[in-house]
From TrEMBL:
A cellular-component GO term for this protein: cytoplasm
Name the record gives this protein: L-lactate dehydrogenase
Keywords of this entry: Cytoplasm, NAD, Oxidoreductase
Gene name of the record: ldh
Keyword Plastid included in the entry's annotation: no
Functional description taken from the UniProt entry: Catalyzes the conversion of lactate to pyruvate.
GO molecular function annotation: L-lactate dehydrogenase (NAD+) activity
Amino acid sequence: MAESHKSKIVVVGAGNVGEAIAYTLMVRKLANDIVLVDLNEDRAQGAALDIAQGTSFFKQVWVRKGGYEECADAELIIVTAGIARKPGQTRLDLAKTNVSIVRSIAKSIMEYAKNPLILMVSNPADITTAAVLEETGLPSHRVIGSGTSLDTARFRYFLSQALNVNIEDIQGYILGEHGDSQVAMWSAITVGGMPLDEYAKQVGVELDKEAIAKRTKEGGAEVIRLKGATFYGIAMAVSNIVEKMMKDENAVLPVAHVLGEEFGDWAGVAISLPCVVGWDGIEKTLSLPMTEEEKAALDNSVKVLRDFQNSVKDM
């Protein structure tokens, strides 16, 4: 059968996260050409074969190993490559290695792609997003970090458990850093269109908000401690972002990009806010109504990320 490619997504990094993302993209039928790029070509080839050999249960999708030249006509490039965070490892130590890796990847991408749309997953995702934007010189709306999408998913999951309600009925966000300074936006949460506190009152549940926010923040570390790595959750979060972009849905998602001058003191920092996401990347960044306490917490998150970005700027 001739390979007739209609839509292409390149996944850079064929480790656990990259492979899980490629698999999820195939299952959700988000492209008919998925290319895995990795320095370890055997790993990329093995992952591609493993996924491709199951495509008969879904649809015809080309899943294959390739090189950076595949970026030339890709609709989307997803960067997952980097060293996985180990138990007890600081984010700064992780960043020192991964920023160097993603800068090299960005150079390779730009050798072939003229105006790519890049989705950053490599941790620490906010910092690698800023580094790749600087390296590529692309418009900020075309270099997107997965940001707090997974944190938000964890948050909604823990809330659904505490309230014993369908997770789809919960709307709310974790914003700021994909890390320790993240902010739970309690004032904006609704359940079935009803303010969170009112819903909890009506169903007779007293929420331990501090415990829920803490478990959300530590969700990744908990999984790493128990099984050594996280990859299914982030794969589902990323495939959701990809779906909104590939289908040009203009959906509102908590993703990260480097903010422009219109954000005043927050400008120049890659941080997660509610963004309208479509075919061209981030179409618009929204200002969510918030309490003074939440605003102060986000100001702190911006400061943490700015200091973090500056500490790895020349790596």
